[in-house]
Amino acid sequence: MRLAGDCYDAAVLDCEGAGRRRRGRAPERQEIEDTRLGAIYLPRIRRKRSPLHGWGVFALEDINKNKRVVTYDGEKISSKESADREDRYLRRGEIWCFRLNQRWVIDANVNGNVARFINHSCRPNCYSNVIDGTIWVIAGKSVSAGDELTYDYHTEGDKEIECHCRPGCTTRL
Question: Domain locations in the chain?
Fold first, then answer.
């Protein structure tokens, strides 16, 4: 697979290879090249401050249910190496590692994309799915322009991080 651009929203984000910010221009439509399916249109999304926690990712246009939104990119590492990194990230209250399968993990803190800023929610509007070795974030219901994208992290482990998805949520990640 080959990304058509270096960012999902080059007008807002500085990404590797994207150069300077392009102010005043509308975000470009992004497509991802999939040899089986041809070009797949990806909806426009943007990273900005979130009322849930830190940074979040927001839809810039309406997204239909079951639409592929973004891939979860990063460095592919072994589960063993991931355990060390995850301990370090958890001490800072962060989760960057996404289990691809029992052997491999994607660490979005290294070479990750905007998907790493999608926040957890116990009542998400998206879900994740591994398709042909690629982690996709997919709209689980119709998402309106301006809505924050969220998915359930389904974390394992010590449950050290408080969930911020809504006031009074007692879930721990």
Answer: 2-73+113-151
